[in-house]
Design a protein that fits this description.
By secondary structure, this protein is an all-beta fold. The protein has three domains: 88 residues, no CATH class; 84 residues, no CATH class; 140 residues, Jelly Rolls (Sandwich). It has no helices and 28 strands. The strands form seven sheets. Strands 19, 20, 21, 22, 23, 24, 25, 26, 27 and 28 form a ten-stranded antiparallel sheet that branches. A four-stranded antiparallel sheet has the order 1-9-5-6, with no helix packed on it. It has a four-stranded antiparallel sheet with strand order 10-16-12-13, with no helix packed on it. The chain is rod-shaped, with a radius of gyration of 39 Å.
């Protein structure tokens, strides 16, 4: 994702170069660097700043704009300085909308328990003691969402800083429900389902005859299809299509008949019963008839076959050449 301005630093904590040599009692703004390179904290609360050994409160004692820190009051000459830049914390390595708040405590003698205003979520808190990060679970206990407790009691004047992180929303993520997206949706290694049913990319097949098939006049006969052009899901076998995904399928048949004919009929059989038919009548040596239907299949037991009926003398289901033969094909058009 593109990011306007300087991107936040993910998971990196940097110690800032000292700016104490520039303190003169009148200058309030200073350039921030780390290792000589400019630092862009992004948020004022992404910094922990100490002047003269005292932790400064963000947005009150100082603000940040770009790589420049500005103090409310000019630090006197000789004041010591140290600072830490906090990188964003989270599982995502892309810019996010995480929020971070800090709270500063000044300990009394022997104090161990500190109450965090507004509370926190266990696992989303860090604690610093006099600028040193404490290990949660070892140096400090923070599990109840309200307080943190030091393993070793503080001495009077110790500075404790709690850093609280809130849950973040990854930018450009699609919500689990009630969301809209634009552009292409590419699915690799799976299927798109709507309401638990596969929506697209269902089975498809095509088959055709390769020779004349002699038939008995006026008897419904299953069409022999010697060439399987394609079968995407291995659902077509021996002239029978049994799709393994529930949904609606477009089924197409073309029947050519030859001989001395008076009629030619094509049938779509579903589960061994006539589902749809079409026919031509007259007097001809060659007839052609087609049929096309949209049919629902349950994805388990439903199947479909192609039958024909030729009435006349020496009737055959005709094969003249590729494209002038009997053909049977179908494909899924939508899920159940």
């Amino acid at each position: 994702m593109s990011y306007i301005g300087n991107p936040p630093v993910n998971g990196v904590f940097r110690k800032l170069d000292t700016i104490a040599a520039s303190f003169n009692g009148s200058t309030t703004s200073f350039n921030l660097t780390s290792g000589g390179a400019a630092v862009f904290p992004g948020l004022t609360t992404n910094l922990i700043i100490s002047l003269g050994g005292i932790i400064q409160e963000p947005n009150t004692a100082y603000t940040v704009a770009g790589s420049v820190i500005s103090f409310t009051a000019a630090p006197p000459a000789g004041t010591t300085f140290w600072g830490i830049q906090l990188g964003d914390v989270g599982l995502a390595s892309t810019p996010n909308q995480a929020a971070m708040t800090t709270q500063v405590f000044t300990a009394t003698a022997g104090q161990t328990t500190f109450t965090v205003a507004g509370g926190y979520t266990a696992g989303q808190i860090q604690v610093l003691r006099n600028g040193v990060q404490l290990v949660v679970g070892v140096d400090v206990t923070a599990t109840n969402g309200t307080t943190f407790v030091l393993t070793n009691a503080a001495t009077v004047g110790d500075t404790l800083v709690s850093i609280i992180y809130t849950s973040f929303i990854v930018a450009n993520a699609v919500a689990k429900s009630g969301d809209t997206m634009t552009g292409n949706l590419n699915i690799t290694g799976g299927t798109l389902q709507i309401g638990g049913s596969q929506a697209v990319n269902g089975p498809a097949f095509s088959a055709e005859s390769t020779i004349d098939q002699s038939v008995t006049s006026n008897v419904n006969t299953k069409v022999t299809l010697g060439n399987e052009v394609f079968d995407t899901a291995n659902c077509f076998s021996s002239g029978t299509f049994t799709p393994n995904v529930a949904g609606y399928y477009q089924i197409n048949c073309i029947l050519r008949g030859a001989g001395t004919l008076t009629s030619l009929a094509a049938f779509i059989y579903k589960n061994n019963s006539i589902y749809a038919s079409n026919f031509v009548v007259g007097s001809s040596s060659v007839f052609s008839v087609s049929i096309s239907e949209t049919i629902y299949f349950n994805g388990t037991t439903d199947y479909v076959e192609f039958y024909g009926n030729a009435v006349g003398t020496s009737p055959v289901f005709d094969y003249a050449s590729a494209g002038l033969n009997c053909r049977f094909n179908g494909c899924m058009v939508r899920g159940a």
